Amino acid sequence: MSAEGQEKLWETKKYDDVRIYTDEEIWNYTDEDVANYKCKHDIPLLEQLEEGPWPSFVSDIKQEAVHRHKLAEQAPDKLLIPADVCDDLLGQVELSYVEKETHWKHGGIVGVFGYGGGVIGRYSDQQEKFPGIAHFHTLRVNQPASKFYKTDYLRALCDIWEYRGSGLTNMHGSTGDTVLLGTFTEQLEPMFFDLTHDLGVDLGGSGSNLRTPSCCVGKARCEFACYDTQDICYELTMYYQDELHRPAFPYKFKFKFDGCPNCCVASIARSDMSYIGTWKDDIRIDQEAVRAYVAGELKPNAGAFGNRDWGKFDIQKEVIDLCPAKCMEWDGKELKINNKECVRCMHCINVMPRALRIGTDTGCSILFGAKAPILEGAQMSTLVIPFIRVEKPYDEIKAIIERVWDWWMEEGKNRERVGELIQRKGIQEFLKVVGVPAIPQHAKEPRSNPYIFWSEGEVPGGWQRDIKEFRKRHPR
Amino acid sequence: MSLGKYGYYDPSDPLKDRITDIGPPHYEQFFPPVIKRNYGKWLYHEILEPGLLVHVSETGEKAYTVRVGGARLMSVQHIREICDIADKYCDGYVRWTTRNCIEFITDSEDKARALMKDLESRKFPKGSYKFPVGGTGCGITNIVHTQGWIHCHTPATDASGIVKSVHDALFEHFKNMDLPAKLRISLACCLNMCGAVHCSDIAILGVHRKPPMIDDEVLSKICEIPLVVAACPLGAIRPAKTEDGKKTVRVNQERCMFCGNCYTMCAAMPLADSEGDGVAILAGGKISNRKSAPKFSKVIVPYIPNEPPRWPKVVETIKHIVEVYAKDARKYERLGEWAERIGWEKFFEKTGIPFTEKSLDDYRLAYDTYRTTTHFKYTEHVWQLAKALEEAE
Ligand code: HEM
Ligand code: HEM
Ligand code: HEM
Ligand code: HEM
Ligand code: SF4
Ligand code: SF4
Ligand code: SF4
Ligand code: SF4
Question: N or C end of chain B, less CB within 10 A?
């Protein structure tokens, strides 16, 4: 079957085109049923988590349990995995609450044909007690950029996941995927077919491959976006489908796209290659609006301080003095920014969004190497490319990506993230791979130890010397 | 829809009609009309009240966003309810944020306000809110977290249960914008840190404290010994043979730092233990480049035992840190910026959290965190040290 047009199915498709359940089957219970629900297993500890104001995942799982039991009576052929999957999950988690140890087995190599990722295999180690979750595999489904959804799509997803899975999800996983939590092995392929055929969505990444890229809300609803985060996220996800589905890397590799240095998707802490929007020209100033902030007509930081009384807004104390570059001046009438000194930290813009705007000559900085502590300790991404244009079709960026991947696949050890390889090989080598010269921006400060590795070619005459000649000049 | 056990899939011919490599659905078809019309044209935004934002476009149009918190673990029934709400107020569109909040977007303030009222009225039968509105500005938004005992094989603690308990205790800071700056809390249930919590204002981290056990019976059958040996960052694992000649490995327990890497590589080396496992609390990290550079979170409390279902000690410690910070920090100061300004010794003094040697680094590059200046502040810690010196004589 051709995949042409699958990416825009939902421009015309409606939930009713693909729905499995009737409204009566979906809303087949009352709040009272949920309140009185007696889980198949005793769960007194978990039930304590139904109290308190924060939404209770226990109450929610119970609601799904009630719903599935009723569905099993109403339309038994409309559930392909056990009706009491939710009961068994609660039962096993309760057991963990008592024993303070997990009851999930290690790993399990399951997946869909031809892909090396997208499914996390999971088996219970208490299968006799909790047969409904004997298998509880997870599917990572590639989320639409910035996680906007049409309800038609979501409802269709809910139907197939109720039908072929546990009906439980994570909205969303840490990397960004829509996570479908828990099904049996035999339903993995049918799920994959339903997802690709009916929903026009593919699995995300897991394992030693490109993980599902993700981006901030950016131009869709943020005035700070310096480039089109959704477009490049989508474009690179599509361009590197092979790398995403078929693991060929030493370890995982993540792209994340932040539209500005506020870093809403935490690219600097969480991605091997972080794209952070920035600009080259001047911060745009509306002096009128600055005066309105000073006069107290506009609320600082877009109202983020709510009703707490911090006293009158003081532009000197709250903006000028907090500017890390100390490049701003306020003479009581006019705000001046010495843009040559500005490090584009966003503080002043965040405080006075109606008065200050990012520049118009925009692009992004590219940093490499962030990762959580395993193995060599946590790392943040290191600035490598201070400014690059982010323009379709992103050829320059793709070329950089591929140079880095080639090097990493050649040199990287098993389970070595690119940030660790940079440490092991030295940033100098990495800069050569990327094809850029070393500049002061690459370091917080120049090194303080003088243990410099010169290569032979850099030293006139090379390293091959004659000790006899030396001794002629310097007798023993 | 494809019905029946296998649906569209034909097990006898797995390649038939298989579609692959189509990626995610294109995002544009999911944009609410007001977003589509004003894409890239936004001028500024304002938080009208906790949980309600307005974004104003250069076209003059406004987009009102209502932000809602919640568990990221959600059932399809919960999602369907979200869909019903989105259909009623937002023409059938809804989005999620990076921190797993739900956002409803509409172009009418009246609709947004009606929607907020509706959302606040929806509760689970035992009384918790289904859709609490808030999580904006200088407050505490959704705690991002990982799987824990719900789905993972390596956790040293649960995720959903602690997060729910901490959220309950800090609910007022979700509903109000009453802190000096944003405060971001994250949880990861083991050192793998799927949630990458290492740059959060407050991080809750599951930690093991016992070296792996070794299942000699099966190790050589299910694990590749050289890979297991190589997996240990401290070189604590060596190949070995059991008395009856089975190939296996041994761990130098003195050297082990309980990272769990060996277990990631080899199912025959489990670490989990009800007495060994628990939670460390880290603080002072940040992601944003605003004002100061992004920072790692620092280990404040090395260990708190697991106390399901509500982890009272973890909750109390975090609530306490938040309250001390809220009172003492200056406007715009993130938790880590505050601690750096007053000095970490003052952080420990003001919070009353005992400082232990476990907060001193002894891993690689540890020296980077030692103090190599005579600048310090006098806190009780100094007098304790002086006293200990005297006693040592
Ligand atoms: C050495 C490091 C890591 C290892 C060995 C590891 C291992 C795992 C495992 C075993 C799971 C399955 C949990 C389940 O049963 O659902 C998982 C889930 C996941 N991991 Fe990791 N992980 C690592 C680091 C990370 C990091 C740094 C991130 C993100 C920045 C991440 C993102 C995820 C995501 C998104 C999931 C899906 C479930 C969730 O959202 O919690 N992982 N990881
Ligand atoms: C951080 C490293 C080092 C420092 C700070 C250092 C410092 C010094 C200083 C201050 C002197 C006295 C010079 C004088 O008064 O004439 C000296 C002498 C000397 N250093 Fe080093 N040195 C270092 C490394 C080394 C190394 C690595 C070697 C040899 C492998 C070395 C070999 C010598 C010798 C042989 C002398 C004696 C020279 C003499 O007596 O005339 N030094 N060093
Ligand atoms: C690898 C790095 C270093 C090298 C190769 C080095 C080498 C030297 C040499 C050759 C001298 C001159 C000795 C003389 O002829 O009087 C000297 C003096 C000195 N160095 Fe270093 N040094 C190094 C690092 C340091 C560091 C890191 C410190 C302190 C933090 C330091 C502190 C001193 C002091 C205090 C003197 C004596 C200055 C004086 O007598 O007025 N050195 N060093
Ligand atoms: C008879 C042959 C082999 C057997 C029985 C075998 C078995 C295994 C097992 C049990 C694991 C651990 C899976 C887990 O983490 O749960 C593993 C991992 C691995 N094997 Fe093999 N293996 C074989 C051959 C190979 C070969 C020929 C290669 C490479 C040339 C290879 C490369 C790897 C790698 C890279 C991993 C680690 C995957 C990861 O990072 O999670 N294996 N293998
Ligand atoms: S990272 Fe910047 S551009 Fe992106 S959503 Fe956050 S503030 Fe806006
Ligand atoms: S963006 Fe940051 S560095 Fe630049 S002027 Fe504003 S506060 Fe100063
Ligand atoms: S943080 Fe660790 S325990 Fe938690 S889900 Fe990730 S791998 Fe599993
Ligand atoms: S837990 Fe970590 S340090 Fe300990 S043996 Fe395993 S890999 Fe090595």
Answer: C
The dihedral through the CA atoms of B22, B25, B29, B34 has a sign that is: negative
* SS3 state at B54: strand
Q: If 0-12 CB within 10 Å is exposed, 13-18 middle and 19+ buried, where does residue B254 land?
A: exposed
CA-based nearest residue in chain A for residue B271: A101
What CA–CA distance (Å, rounded) separates A417 from A209? 11
Q: Which atom of ligand 8 is nearest to the CA of B231?
A: 7
Give me the mean pLDDT over the B367-393 stretch: 84
**SS3 track for B275-301:** CCCEEEEEECCECCCCCCCCECCEEEE
CA distance B81 to A352: 37
For chain A, how big is the Rg over CA atoms in Å?
A: 28
Q: In 3D, which of B151, B103, B159 has the Cα closest to residue A89? A: B151
Tens-digit pLDDT profile for residues B290-309: 999 999 999 999 999 999 99
- Give the contacts of B232 (CB within 8 A, at least 6 positions apart): B251, B261, B262
Ligand nearest to the CA of A327: 6
Structure tokens at B173: 């800071």
Measure the CA–CA gap between A287 and A356, rounded to whole angstroms: 9
Residue B295, strand partner residues: B286
* DSSP characters over A250-292: SS-B-EEEESSTT-TT-HHHH-SEEEEEEESSPPEE-HHHHHH
Chain A residues touching residue B29 (CB < 8 angstroms):
8-11, 150
Verify whether the Cβ–Cβ distance B309 to A46 is below 8 Å: yes
Q: How many angstroms separate the first and last alpha carbons of chain A?
A: 83
- ipTM score: 0.94
pLDDT at A139: 97
pLDDT-based confidence at residue A1 (cuts at 50, 70, 90): very low
Distance CA B169, CA B280 (A): 18
Query: What does residue A469 show for φ and ψ, rounded to 5 degrees?
Result: -60, -40
* Both tokens assigned to A120: 């996390």
Rounded (10°) angle between helices B344-351 and B312-328: 120
**Given the CA of residue B222, which atom of ligand 4 is nearest to it?**
10
Protein residue with its CA nearest to atom 4 in ligand 8: B256
State the DSSP H helix or E strand holding residue B385, giving kind and residue range, or none if neither: helix B380-392
Determine which of A138-152, A293-307, B17-31, B191-205 has the lowest per-residue pLDDT on average. B191-205
CA distance A8 to A4: 9
Q: Do the Cβ atoms of A10 and B29 come within 8 Å?
A: yes
For chain A, list the domains and their CATH numbers.
9-199 (3.30.70.2500), 214-279+364-458 (3.30.413.10), 284-357 (3.30.70.20)
In tens, the pLDDT along A371-417 reads 877 777 788 999 999 999 999 999 999 999 999 999 999 999 988 99
B183 φ/ψ angles, rounded to the nearest 5 degrees: -130, 120
Ligand 4 proximal residues by C-beta, below 6 Å: A 107, 208, 414-415; B 222-224, 227, 265
Which amino acid appears at position A362 of this protein? T
Residue A69 to residue B298: CA distance in whole angstroms: 47
Looking at chain B, which residue has its C-alpha nearest residue A300? B46
Give B167 Cα–ligand 5 centroid separation in angstroms: 25
